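Methods — Computational structure assignment.
A single polypeptide chain was analysed. Its primary sequence is given first, followed by the predicted tertiary structure written as structure tokens.
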Amino acid sequence: MRAICNFGTSADRGCLYSSEIVSLASDWLGNTVVQILFEKCSSVPQFAMLETITPHLVVNGIHNGTWAAQKIFEHAQIPKEVRPIVQNLRVYALPFLLDRFGNCGSDPDSVVAHSFCE
């Protein structure tokens, strides 16, 4: 992991931009790895992972990647980091609000609560 965070080899860097990181984020064990990467990596690899994962946040969030999605939300601090999250979740905002598992009011750990309501 340290090699990935430090942008070690080209293979390590490639992992951040490929579907491998998306698969890890939705895997029951791999999402823990993604969380650690977001905690330990500097802003450059974090943003690379963010751009790769955000188009898949909804799908990952309803499978095993909820904790990884929450970690991504926590680490998105500046507009450049928040923008891809909002752009990729915007089309799902209404369905989330209407869904009993996505609604802010019914569950503080819901997808909408973590992305729009806090």
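Note: The radius of gyration is 14 Å.
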